[in-house]
Structure formats: structure tokens, C-alpha cells
Amino acid sequence: MAASTPRDPQRTGMSRRAFLAAAATAGLTGAGFAYLRMGAAEPSWSNDDPQHAGGEVTLAEFSDAGDPLGLVTVPKVIKTEEEWKAQLTPRQYAVVRQKGTERAFTGEYDKLYEDGIYRCVACGTALFSSETKFNSGTGWPSFWAPIAEQNVATENDWSFGMPRTEALCRRCDAHLGHVFPDGPAPTNLRYCMNSEALLFMKK
């Protein structure tokens, strides 16, 4: 299925841009790489806690060419924060582990429309396909659906005093971005993702 046609940026992403503008006014920038902390409450448990090192999830597996390989049951990826810091770049860590947001129009995949799939930068789980990518005009890579419902989890996010839906990798709980109800048909959803949370595999 071909990617959707570009949408009018004046009609998409207004709530996200509004909160980004407010945060920018507050001066939430980092040296060389500005990102926003989502301000969500700390999780009730820590990845450093060995009691939470177990657990399994059932995911849809895909080849790098985007071919479905069936469902697989795999262990959750649980690492200490020091292990994540050693694996990820500072920018990736700021987004996927600290729930940051890269600045609009700066991400590597914002304007990328080549055929392929997007995997989680932290654990390699297939998350999105180029077939559902569209130009939202918001400055972040946007998709109208994940590659498989099993692979992307969602949670309520009340940070910044506004209700939103956070999207996370189901296998490693990496923060990916947010989901908004202003996308194109057939889902009318916009999965607004951070490039730093994704790894593109060209078909």
C-alpha cells in the first residue's frame, strides 16, 4: 500500500506543537541537542531491580524486507540504566529511557520515504513499515498504524497537564512518541515518533 499523500500541516499536530512551544518557552534545551523531558511520573519499579528481570511477550516477527514471519514469544528486554547508557547514544538514551522529544524537523527519518521497516533502536523489535508512513507536516516521522498491534504498547500520559497516549516498544518499554487522533484513513491515527527511537532497515 502506498504512503498517504501529504497533509496540511495547519490541520495536524496542533496539540503537540502547542505543548512544545510552551516547553521551549521554559527553556528546556540541551547542549547541542535540544529535547524535552516528558515529565511523566517515575515508574513504580526500577530496571535495576532483579525482581523485574523476567517476563515474556508475544510479538509479530518480520524480516528486514518486511515479510511477516509469524508470532514469537520472547523474553522482555530488561537492563540496568548503566547498561542502556553503554548501549545507546546520549540522544537515543534521552528519548527512549528518559522520555525526551527531539526537536521538530531535526530527526533523521522525518522526510525519509524509502521502502523498508523501522525497528526499535534499543532492542530491534519491528515497529513500523514505510507502507503506513505519511507526511504529517509536524516535523516528526508519522505513521497511521504500527507494523503489528502486538509490537507497540500504549499508555495514558498526563504529563504537562494534558491527556495524551504514549507509544512504547512492547519488548523493552522504550519510549517512542505519542499517538494522536488526527491521522489519515483508514485508522485516523497519527503515531508521532522520534527518529532517535527508530532504526530504519531499507528493503
- The CATH homologous superfamily corresponds to Peptide methionine sulfoxide reductase
Which CATH first-tier class would you pick? Mainly Beta
Rg result: 16 Å
How many domain modules?
Answer: 1
| Portion of residues within helices | 10-25%
Order of helices and strands: HEEEHHEEEEEEEEEE
Using the coordinates shown, work out and report the CATH topology.
Answer: Metal Binding Protein, Guanine Nucleotide Exchange Factor, Chain A
What spatial form do the alpha-carbon principal axes imply? globular
Going across the biggest sheet, name each strand in turn: 7-8-12-11-10-9
CATH architecture: Beta Complex
Taking pLDDT < 50 over at least 5 consecutive residues as the criterion, the unreliable ranges are: 1-34, 37-53
Q: Hey, roughly how much beta strand do the residues contain? A: 25-35%
Largest sheet: 6 strands, antiparallel
Number of strands: 13
> First CA to last CA: what distance?
14 Å
Question: How many DSSP H or I helices?
Answer: 3
Mean pLDDT: 81
Give the structural class: alpha+beta
What can you tell me about this protein's structure?
The chain is α+β, with helices and mostly antiparallel strands and 203 residues long. The chain has a single domain (55-202), classed as Metal Binding Protein, Guanine Nucleotide Exchange Factor, Chain A. Helix content is 13%, strand content 30%. The strands form four sheets. It has a six-stranded antiparallel β-sheet, with no helix packed on it. A hairpin with a 6-residue loop joins strand 9 and strand 10 (164-169). The radius of gyration is 16 Å and the shape is globular.
